[in-house]
Amino acid sequence: xxxxxxxxxxxxxxxxxxxxxxxxxxxxxxxxxxxxxxxxxxxxxxxxxxxxxxxxxxxxxxxxxxxxxxxxxxxxxxxxxxxxxxxxxxxxxxxxxxx
Length: 99
Known about the structure:
The protein is 49% helix and 4% strand. The chain is mostly helical and 99 residues long.
């Protein structure tokens, strides 16, 4: 199988060939310059907004696991049927704007 074409590092002025993105040296430098999550704006206000959003009923259901188990276990428990019933009902949902 042919190998992937190597391209120059994405850092301006670096000509080292890499399989994608930064070369190892520039990747370390970029990570050091990136800053912490708080430096990038992910502070307590962001965490609070995220928690409020996820705690909304529709959002919480969308991001939580529907069922856990192997394919055969879920078939035996009727999990797939229950999942597809809910999916087909959700297909009829419509978003409306409240004044």
